UniProtKB/TrEMBL annotation:
Keywords: Molybdenum, Oxidoreductase. The keyword Oxidoreductase applies. Residues 23-127 form the Aldehyde oxidase/xanthine dehydrogenase a/b hammerhead domain. It comes from Gordonia liuliyuniae. SMART domains: Ald_Xan_dh_C (SM01008). The keyword Nucleotide-binding does not apply. Pfam families: Ald_Xan_dh_C, MoCoBD_1, MoCoBD_2. PANTHER family: ALDEHYDE OXIDASE 1-RELATED (PTHR11908:SF132), XANTHINE DEHYDROGENASE (PTHR11908). This is Xanthine dehydrogenase family protein molybdopterin-binding subunit.
Length: 696
């Protein structure tokens, strides 16, 4: 084999897993062929709060083809019940409507479903509360918020600065419950091999991280890590909902313990996802800005109230972006939670930053109007030299470049700032913009192994995940570049706990975390074995901590530009044009990077105009629990979306020079749409989603 110097970094290399996917041969979790499979259908609570007093399984058990029925009264014990979401079927308590309280395992999915319907459940119902109110007496401050951030921050004298400010904005913004809807619903196959004294669990799972699934599930079943193998080669999207195992995984394993060694297949239905796999919690956000007449901020206050589940705390970091975004000398942020009788909220693409920046960036638009300034100019005037929160220099804050580049490309200069002042036929026309920021996170605990094989190919092994983003391909480019070979000479292997430890595909941290491990290992390999290694030569190395992590503030940035049209008669909103300009460090694969960015922007458009899960508080469940009632932006809604990025290399985040790009595209996108709708109509909407009825 000749080693060809890599030219692949930045190239738009077509997805290596593409042919398997489009020919239908890529295996997703549910599709793994196993011997004598059984199929699980869950029994879910039909009350929101209370106790199960009886479960009559006799009719279900009599059905031909039923293998096992599990209830809260007879399910196997878990070894660790400390996780309120995962600890299911261990007692008779019901914490939310839709909670898993039983299962039927049968010879076919149809039999399992029919039998599950035959299980009769009696409850002692208790009063439930599912509605978020800012005056709820149970409001409390969590110890920290998601990501380990402090719950509250206070710098300077915010109240005095607001009192003295020449210009103020004081508004409340709300975002609704939103549900992750990856194309592939959650699914798993659980195989429990009951070797006496040393059982073995194999789980094929649709997950964003096999190693974290293993780490979380092993103690629940009293197993050592070595007794659990999780495999997940292909994943049809996740958006955070597959970032951690959920109760359905536990149910499948409990059922497998009762199925005589037969594999249990559990495909969660679209409807079941609306109560089982997390969701973006709704937010109520009060934002107060104080500024000089020239638009220079003197104070930012961002106070957030959100629900959590009574059974397990989830505290989103919604106000955190306001700590670093702009250079106000006086800043206050806070997070308060209300425990409700609802399923456990969880990560959904840019949890925290996404809803938080919606409020912050609409508020900045309102400040621009109040100061009679261009919204881009108001942001540039508040650009901080260093991170206001840590005082650290930026690894690369190119927000102003993004704003200026975007303004030019979008044709912002010709914009007349007066709202409700342009129309074509029946349509009001407007344009709007917003900034975007997302932290450049890096996760610990990543190890890669590289071996030179007899066929002249480097096997590069790391238990990472490609959830449809193109990670597999990008990591191949990273490995080829670091090894100094062609991408054809690299075989990246991911998605299996038999491969070295890897962190979860979440927080836009994947490429940084896994890529650092691969580059470190490749360098060590070349040092040990040179560029003409012998067959079988191998190296395994753990990624070192980033020495710059505490010295620099590391974030991706972006600027969104949106054109909106609003129908005078019907209020219908169309978004014919979106432009995003991003600062994400070096592009590793231009094609998959662009896809991540426009995917995020599309999801932001969807958030702005459509996405909302409606809870019926009488019964406590989300009623919009399918894609007919839970609306998302479909093809007809998405017109001209363009994402570009600055030509740059970040010297501090990772050895590739890149930053994460999975979430930056959604952050700020909904604010840009709302700001464009304001410019078109003169109607300022502060509650998502923006629907036609509110523009009439
Ligand atoms: Mo993402 S919500 O960090 O998978």
């Amino acid at each position: 084999m000749t080693l060809i110097p890599a030219t692949s970094m930045g190239a738009s290399l077509t997805r290596l897993d593409g042919p398997a996917k489009v020919t239908g041969t890529a295996r997703y979790a549910f599709e793994h062929p196993v011997e004598h499979p059984t199929y699980l259908h869950p029994v879910q609570a039909t009350v929101a709060h209370g106790r199960v007093t009886a479960m009559d399984t006799s009719a279900a058990g009599r059905l031909d083809g039923v293998v096992a029925v599990l209830t809260v009264f007879d399910a196997p014990d878990l070894a660790d019940t400390s996780d309120g979401e995962l600890s299911i079927l261990q007692d008779d308590k019901v914490h939310f409507r839709g909670q898993l309280i039983g299962a039927v395992v049968a010879e076919s999915p149809e039999i399992a479903r029919e039998a599950a319907d035959l299980v009769r459940v009696d409850y002692r119902e208790e009063a439930h509360r599912t509605e978020l109110r800012v005056d709820d007496p149970r409001l409390y401050a969590p110890d920290t918020v998601n990501g380990g951030h402090p719950t509250d921050t206070e710098t300077g004298d915010v109240d005095a600065a607001l009192d003295d400010a020449a210009v103020t904005v004081d508004q409340t913004y709300t975002t609704p419950i939103e549900h992750n809807n990856p194309m592939e619903p959650h699914a798993c196959v659980a195989i429990w091999d009951e070797t006496p004294g040393r059982p073995q669990l194999t789980l094929y799972d649709s997950t964003q991280g096999v190693h974290s699934v293993r780490q979380m599930l092993a103690p629940l079943f009293g197993l050592e890590l070595e007794q659990v193998r999780v495999r997940s080669p292909h994943v049809g999207g996740g958006f955070g909902s597959k970032g951690a195992p959920h109760a359905h995984n536990v149910l499948a394993v409990l059922a497998a313990q009762r199925s005589g060694g037969r594999p249990v297949k559990f495909a969660v239905t679209r409807q079941q996802m609306f109560s089982l796999v997390g969701y973006r919690p709704p937010t109520i956000q009060r934002v107060r800005l104080g500024a000089d007449p020239d638009g220079a901020l003197t104070a930012i206050s961002h106070e957030v109230v959100e629900p959590t589940s009574a059974v397990k705390e989830y505290a989103e970091q919604t106000a955190v972006p306001s700590r670093t975004m702009y250079a106000a000398p006086n800043r206050r942020t806070s997070h308060r939670l209300v425990p409700l009788d609802v399923p456990v909220p969880n990560w959904m693409r840019a949890p925290g930053e996404c809803p938080g920046m919606f409020a912050g960036e609409v508020a900045m638009d309102e400040l621009a109007v109040a100061c009679d300034l261009d919204p881009i100019e108001v942001r540039i005037r508040n650009e901080p030299d260093v991170d206001p929160e840590s005082g650290n220099p930026w690894s690369g804050r190119h927000l102003v470049d993004c704003l200026r580049t975007g303004a030019q490309r979008f044709g912002w200069a010709e914009r007349d700032p007066t709202p409700r002042n342009r129309a074509r036929g029946q349509w009001w026309l407007g344009t709007g913009m917003a900034s975007s920021a997302y932290p450049a996170l890096s996760m610990p605990g990543n190890t890669a192994r590289i071996e030179y094989r007899a066929d002249g190919v480097y096997a590069v092994q790391i238990g990472a995940a490609d959830i449809g983003t193109g990670t597999w391909t990008a990591l191949t480019q990273v490995a080829a570049d670091a090894l100094g070979c062609d991408t054809d000479s690299v075989d990246v292997q991911i998605g299996d706990t038999d491969l070295p430890s890897a962190s979860v595909a979440g927080g836009s941290s994947g490429i940084t975390s896994w890529g650092t491990a691969i580059v470190t290992t490749a360098r060590a390999f070349r040092q040990a074995h040179g560029d003409k290694p012998s067959t079988g030569a191998h190296t395994i190395t753990e990624a070192p901590e980033n020495p710059d992590a505490d010295k620099f503030a590391m974030h991706s940035f972006g600027a969104h530009f949106v054109e909106a049209q609003v129908n005078r008669d019907t209020g219908e909103i169309r978004v014919p044009r979106m432009l995003g300009v991003f600062s994400v460090g070096r592009a590793i694969n231009a094609g998959t990077l662009r896809s991540q960015l426009i995917g995020g922007m599309t999801m932001g458009l969807s958030m702005a105009l459509h996405e909302e899960s409606v809870r019926d508080h009488r019964f406590g469940h989300v009623v919009t629990q399918d894609l007919a009632a839970y609306h998302i932006s479909a093809h007809a809604d998405v017109h001209d979306i363009e994402a570009i990025w600055l030509d740059e290399v970040d010297e501090h985040v990772n050895p590739m020079g890149s930053r994460g790009a999975g979430e930056i595209g959604i952050v700020g996108a909904a604010a840009a749409v709302a700001n464009a709708v304001y410019h078109a109509t003169g109607i300022r909407l502060r509650d998502l989603p923006i629907t036609a009825d509110r523009l009439l």
